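Problem 12. The chain below contains 49 residues. Write out its predicted structure in token notation.
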Amino acid sequence: MDVEPEHPRPVRHHDHGTWLVAFTGRMLVVCPRCGGRALVVPRPAPATE
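Solution.
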């Protein structure tokens, strides 16, 4: 018995434009080409007087 997949193509994540900083404080980013890595941290809020 053949079972058809629920979705003919893979379902991709739909981004509503939320900044990633809302979910995490730091993020490790890896370049797929060279394997270089960077730790990305959010900018501090500007000082108010």
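Discussion. The radius of gyration is 19 Å. Students who got a different answer should revisit the alignment rule from Section 12.3.
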